[in-house]
Amino acid sequence: MKTKQEFFEDFFARLKQNGFRVESIMENDIAAEVYDENSLFCVITQDGELVFETYGSDKARTLEQAAEETRVVQGCCTQPPFADMERTETTVLTNGSYSKVFESAGTVLLCRRTGLFGYEFVTCQKTMPKHNSRRYYREQVFYDPVLAQDSFMERSGLKIPSPLALSHEELRVLVSCCARCVMLDNELDSGEESRIRELMAKIEDSLPPRPDLTPHHYFENETERSPS
After folding, report:
1. Region (Disordered): which ranges (predicted)?
2. What residues does 112 pair with on adjacent strands?
3. For the domain that residue 53 is a member of, what is the CATH number?
4. Measured on CA atoms in the order 125, 128, 130, 131, is the torsion positive or negative?
5. 120 and 145, same structural domain?
């Protein structure tokens, strides 16, 4: 699941297919009111709770089945994403209570179970104690645990940048440049030449075998194409 809006659109469509009338509100803490004929049957809150006004067993099961089908289609996280969550510290935000999963460098990852969306995740910044009435700020909400953990790693400075990706063709160009340096630079001493050749060997080891395009062949073709 990516966003609540996507979930609600799918869920409301399923409710209408099952004979309910859905009045989308999307303001304050209410997402929609669900009517069974002319009677208010259920209120759906923005934070993913179902508040039944009248609880008819058959109708309630139909609504809950539509919610379960939506969770499956939207790929909601419905299994506990972290171990021993019941033992973690409880943290209160403006929109409810969460379990604190990770904290590092003033960044916090929180998690809670909602009645409608499955698990919801929040990354936020922690304020200095005793200096602010607000404990957390810059809250970012996720419904995918992988995206939530990536956000936490990046915001806390724990994420290691991905290595620079080069194509095989780009690596061959680098090898040809090294070959040019070794063949044409008469000021290279033996130590520098040895290090360049070691670098060429490492790059060549990562390339698929192409005997027709050795570094020297590549370099010679380049010189032939060069303007006189």
Report:
1. 205-228
2. 120
3. 3.30.310.10
4. negative
5. yes
Q: Which amino acid is at 45?
A: T
Query: In sequence order, what DSSP letters do the residues of 88-121 get, joined into one string?
Result: SPEEEETTEEEEEEEEETTEEEEEEEETTTEEEE
Q: Which of 74, 97, 120 is the endpoint of a domain?
A: 74
- Give the integer Cα–Cα distance in Å for 117 and 108: 21
List, for residues 129-161, the tens digit of each pLDDT value. Answer: 766 677 888 889 999 999 999 999 988 888 766
What does the pLDDT read at residue 182? 79
Using CA atoms, how far apart are residues 71 and 114, in angstroms rounded to an integer?
12
Q: Hey, how many other C-beta atoms are within 10 angstroms of the C-beta on 185?
A: 11
Query: CA-based Rg of the chain, rounded to a whole angstrom?
Result: 29
User: In this structure, are residues 139 and 93 in contact, taking their beta carbons and an 8 Å threshold?
Assistant: yes
Angle in degrees, 0-180, between the axes of helices 57-74 and 4-17, rounded to the nearest 10? 140
Q: How far is CA 50 from CA 33, 43, 53, 141, in A?
A: 10, 6, 10, 20
Claim to verify: residue 27 and residue 58 sit in the same structural domain? yes
Structural domains of the chain, count: 3
Query: Are 15 and 35 found together in one domain?
Result: yes
Q: What is the pTM of this model?
A: 0.64
Q: What is the domain range of residue 19?
A: 4-74
Q: Is 228 inside any structural domain?
A: no
